[in-house]
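assembly run, all chains below
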Amino acid sequence: MHTARRFLAAAGLLAMAACAGADDTDVVNVYSHRHYESDQILFDRFTELTGIQVNVVTASADELITRLENEGEASPADMLITVDAGRLHRAKERGLLQPVTSATLEANVPDHLRDRDGQWWGLTQRARVLAFHRERVDSTTLSTYEALAEPEWDDRVLIRSSENVYNQSLMASIIAHHGEEGATAWAEGMVENMARQPSGGDTDQVTAVAAGAGDVAVANTYYIARLVESTDPEEQRIASQIGVFFPNQGDRGTHVNVSGAGVTRYAGNVDNAVALLEFLTGVEAQGVFAEANQEYPVHPDVPWSATLQSWGDFRADTLDLTVLGELNDAAVRIFDRAGWR
Amino acid sequence: MVAEAPNDTPSPPALRLEDVGKRYPGADCDALRGVDLEIRDRELVAVVGQSGCGKTTLLRIIAGLEVPDSGTVRIGGEVVAGSGVWVAPEHRGVGLVFQDFALFPHLTVEKNIAYGLRGLPRARRAEQTAKMLELVELEGLGGRYPHQLSGGQQQRVALARALAPEPSVLLLDEPFSNLDAPLKASLREGLTRVIRRTGVPTLLVVHDVEDVVVLANRVAVLKDGRIVREGSPIGLCQNPGDPYVARFFERLRTPDANRFPIEAIEKAADPVGR
Amino acid sequence: MEIVLPRNWRLAVRSLPWGWTALSLVLVSLLAIPVITIPIGALAPAGESWAHVSETLLPRYLGNTLFLIAASGLIALALGAGTAWLVAMCEFPGRRLFRWALVLPLAVPAYMAAYVYAGMVSVTGPIQRTIRAVVPGAGDTLFYWNVMQIEVVAVIFGLVLFPYVYLPARALLESRAGPTLEAARVLGRSHASVFWSVGLPLARPALAGGVALVLMEVVNDYGAVKYFGVPTFTTGIFRAWFSLGDLDSAVRLSAILMLVVLAMLIVERWQRGQARYAAPGSPGRAAPYPLRGAKGLAAMLFCLLPIAFGFLVPVLQLLLWAFRTAPDVVDGRFVRMAANSLGLAGLAGLIAVAVALVLSYTSRLDRTDITRAASRVALLGYSVPGAVIAVGVLTVSIFLDGLLGGGVRLVLTGTAVALVAAYVVRFLAVAYLPVEAGLERIGTNLTEASRMLGARPLRTLLRIEVPLLKGTLVAAGTLVVIDVLKELPLTLILRPFNFDTLATRAFQLASDEQLAESAPAALLVIFCATIVVAFLHRTLDGKPELGR
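ok done. output:
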C-alpha cells in the first residue's frame, strides 16, 4: 500500500511539474508545428516585453488539429501555429479558430497572406523553388513546375515524399491552375522523371543534386539558404554548386506558402493570444524570422536576409491560400493514384 | 467455549462429503460421482485407486481448490462447499501436503513452517515452529533452504508446515510416490508417529494399498470417480468382493509377499493406537 | 470452443475471486477503451475513401510491411541465434565482453540509426568528407549512394532489434540446454550438426518469442520508414487519418495491423506451449566448443559486426556531431529533459509491471474464459501505432475529465498522467509476456500451498510470487523503460505544455533537417537507455531464480 501511495504521489508531482504555469493568469498556450530554435527565442522575448508566459506544445499540425478537435471546448490551447496555409484552412473549416480584428495585425500582414475573416494570419513566407546543379544544368532550360514533368527531365528530378505538406500544397496549386486531370498528368510525369524514389527531407534533395543523384530538386527556400549560410565549409561547398531558380516567372509566379497562426475558438486568453500574434508579426520578430531562419517576412517593411536578397526579387503565385486547404484532399488522392510515394 | 460438552451427543465428523460430483469442462465423463465419505476424530482414512480415478480431484475439492458441481462438503459440521455456500481455501483450516511438497524455495525451513502462523504473536509463532521441527525431527535444520534438504527431509518439512496451524483436517496427496523404498518405510513410521501424537484427522490418497494398509483405520477404494468399497484394511483384504478391489489387495494375500504378512495387518487393526 | 456451464454454477460463481476479477476487468477496460474506441468506427460501411486507399495504397503498404517483417525478422533471427550460440556454446577471444556488449544495440532507437546512416553517407557526411580530404584529387568529386531503400531499413531494424532474440536464446542455451547438447556431441554429431539438429530446435520457443517482439517493433515503427520514404501500414494510418481526415480508412488499416500482431502473439504463445516438451529443464551449461585460429577470428567478427553497426558506429557519429554542435545546443533544459524522460519511463515501467501482474495473476485465480480473453485484449495496444493510441487516450481522458466535473478545466488531459497511461496502454504487452511466462514457470502449486496455509491471494502474491519473480519483474519493467525512452509519436501528441523529453527534442531537430544539432539529445537518449540496458542485463544475469 505504501508503494501504491508513493506511486500516486510521484504521478501527481510529475503532473504538477508538467502543468507549471498553467494556473497563472498571464499566460498564452500555444500548439505549434514550428519547432525552430528561433521561435523559442521569440517567445522568451515576448515574455520579457509583456510578462505573459508562453506555454508551448509542438507536434505536427495534423496531430495538433486532431487534438484540438478532441479537446473541444475544454481545450487549453489559445493559439495554433502551422507551417502551411492548407492546415490553417482545415482548422478554420473544422471550427477550431475564431476571427480576430486588430488594426496592428492588419497593418503588419498584407491582405493576401491572411484569412479573409481574420481567423488566421501569416507569419512568414517560403517559396518552393528549383535547386539545380550549376554545371550540369543550363538555367535557361528551366522554366516551370509543369516543365519538370516533360520527357527531357527523365531520371533527373529529385523531390521528397507526398507525405510532406509542402508538396501537398504545391499539388493543390497545380490542381487550382490545371484542374484534376492536368494535375494527374503532371504527377505521373513527375513520377516518371524521378531520379529515385522520394525519401529524406528537402535538404537531402538539394545535397543529392550536388552529389549527382539528379540534376534538379524541388525545395523550400530556407533549406537552401541554410546551406548557403552554414558555417561548415563542406556545406558551403555543396551550396556553391547549387543554383536557385524561381519557376513560373513567365506566368502565375512561384508557389508560395505561409507559416501562420490563428486564435483558437475556445481560447481562454484571447487578449494574450492577440498580443502574441501582434508581436510575432511586428518588425522585431519578423526580423528574427528573416535572419535566424531564412524565411521571407510577411511584414512589408522588414528586409529579407542577405542570402534571400542575393537570389533577387520574384513573382509569387497570388492564388488565394485557402484554396490550398480546400484542395488538399484531392492533392493527396492524385499523389496516391500516380504512385508518388 | 463450553468446557464440559455432554458426552452423549456425538460430535460432528471432522470431515463429511455427501453426494459430491465433479466434471471438468470439456471432459466426457465425470471425475467424481456421488461420493460420500466421512472422517471422524483421530481417524486416518486412505483413499486408494488407480491414477486418473479422481483421487486428486477429491482432495482438491475438500481443500477448496476445485469447486464441486454437486453435493456438499462439511468440515467440523460446517458446510464449506455446497447449498450455495463457498468457503475459500484460506479460510477452511485444512492442511494439505502436496505430492511434490510445494515448499517455498525462497524461504528457509523455519519460515516455511511459520508461513501459516501469521495470526500468532511472534513468540508463540517461534514456539510453535520449534515444536513442529521437533515433531518431524528436523531440529537444527530450521535455517536451511529447501533445496539444501534431501527428499525425505523436504517431505517432513511439508508435513510440519501443514500441521503448524493445527488444521482440523490433514490431507496428504500421494505421500509416498516420490520416494524410494527404504525412505518409504521410515517415512511411514514417522508419519504414523506424528499423526498419533497430534491426533489430527487425516485423509490420504495413494495408488498403492501397500503403503497405507498398516496405517489406515479405513480404506476407501475409488474407481472411475465412485467409491466402490469401503471398510477396514483387514476386512477388505479378506473380502474384496470386486475384482478391481481384489487387485489392490492381491499382493498382500500371496504367500510369498512376506513384506506385508497378513499378521501385520491384523496387528495393525487399531493402527493409530486408540 | 465449447463453453460448458458448470452444473453448480452458483457455487462456481461464488468461488471466483471477485475482488481480483473486478479489479482486472476495470483495468482491462481502462486499457482497452482507448484502443477499442477507434475500431468501433470500423463497423460503419466502407466509404469512398476506403476504395481509394485499398486500390491505390493497400498493395504497396502490404508489400512493404511484409517485406520488412520477413527481412528484418530473418536478419534479427540470424544475428540473434548465431551470436547466442557462439556466446553460450563456444569459447573464443573476447567472448565474455561480447556476451554483454551484444545487448547494447537495444539502446539505439531505430529512427535514430536511420537518421545517422543517411547522414553518414550523404555528401556532407563524414565518409565523403574523409575521402575528399584523404584521396588526392578527389577534392571536388561528390558521389551519391542511395541508402534510403527498404532493404537498408530492414538491415537497420535487424541490427538494433536483434538483442530481443539474442537475450532469450542465450539464456535458454546457457541454463537449460547443456546436457541435451552434450548428449548430441557424445553421439558423434559435428558442431554444425548439433547446432542445426539440436540447438535450434531447443531454442525455438525462445527464438519465436524474441522474433515476435522484433516484428511488433518493426510494424509499429514510424520514424525510420517515414524518413526513408518506405510507406507501411503505420504511415498509411497516419496518412488516412491525419492527412485525408479519413478515420474510417485509418481504422480499417489499424484493424489489419491488429490482426497481424494478434497472429504473432498467438504464434508466440503456441511456441511457448511447446517449450515444455522442447526444454525439459535439464540445467547447466554445456562444455564449450573451443574456437581457435581462423574460426575464433570468424566468431569474433560475427559478434563484432552487429555491435559495431548497431551501436558503436551510430554512437561515434553522434559523438562527432555532438562535439561540433553541443556548445550551441546544450543548456540547462537538458537536465530537465533527461529527468522527464527517465521519470516518465520509470513510472510507466512500474505501473505496467503492476498491471501485468494483477492481470496475469487474476487469470490464474479465476480460470474462466472471460478473464483470459480480457487479459489478451489488454495486450492489443502493442499492435496500435503510438499516435492512434494517443488520440484514443485523449478521447477517454477528456471524457473522464467531464465526469470529474472540472467543467472547462482539464484535469487529466494534457498532463503527465494521461501520458503515462498511454505508455501503459501501448507497452503493457512488453511487461505482460515475461510476467505471464514467469508465473507459468512457477506453476500453481506454491500458490495453492500458500492459500492452504491461510494466506489470501494478495498476501500470497506479495509473499510468494513477487519474491520468486523479482528478477523477471525487474526485467519486464526495464524493457518498458527502454521502450518509453525511445517512444516518439505518442509523446509528441499527448505531452503537456513546455514538456520535452530527450527523444522529442532529438526528433524535432532531426525532422527540421538539423541532424548535427539533434545529436546531443540523441546521444543522451542512447546513454540513458544504455544504462538501463546494462542494468537489465545484470538482472537477467543474476543468480538463476529459485524455483525454476
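The longest strand of chain B covers residues 15-22.

Chains B and A do not touch (no CB pair under 8 Å).

not gonna interpret more than that til we talk
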